[in-house]
Amino acid sequence: MLAAAMVLAGLAALVHVYIFWLESVVWMRPATRRVFRIASEDDARTTRALAYNQGFYNLFLAVVTVVGIVLLATGSTPAGAALVYAGSGSMVAAALVLVSGSRAYARAAAIQGTLPLLAVVALTAAVV
To answer: Per the UniProt record, which residue ranges are transmembrane (predicted)?
Structure first.
């Protein structure tokens, strides 16, 4: 079950690195604007600084999770589990905040939160 938790947490981290890429690197591209339903280049320009910042939050959650996975893989189970819980749990919490703001974001919240939720469940089953 620990291996499943690490794989799920790793996939969740990859999703969050991708979100970082969209929000912090390619925010102004038309394809990215379509993903986030940003109608105009002016709207994207207006929200660029906010998206840039938010993208880095996603990156930091991924980094914490990956460090936790590395620690788990090298036998440092307590520290690794704590970091995977912190990173993946924060991803789940962020998904809940996203959908609580508007039901229109339910799909995005599901994409953002399902893998880390499964990782938390698998990790709990593995370490209890």
So the answer is: 6-28, 55-73, 79-99, 106-127
Q: Residue 47: how many CB atoms within 10 A of its CB?
A: 16
Whether 114 and 91 have beta carbons less than 8 Å apart is answered as: no
Cα–Cα distance for residue pair 61/81, rounded to 1 Å: 14
Q: How far apart are CA 24 and CA 70, in angstroms?
A: 25
Separation of alpha carbons 109 and 91, rounded Å = 10
In whole angstroms, what is the distance from residue 31 CA to residue 63 CA? 26
Q: How far is CA 28 from the centre of its chain?
A: 21
38/126 Cα distance (integer angstroms): 41
| Residue boundaries of the structural domains of the chain | 2-127
pLDDT tens across 9-49, in order? 999 999 999 999 999 999 999 999 999 999 999 999 999 99
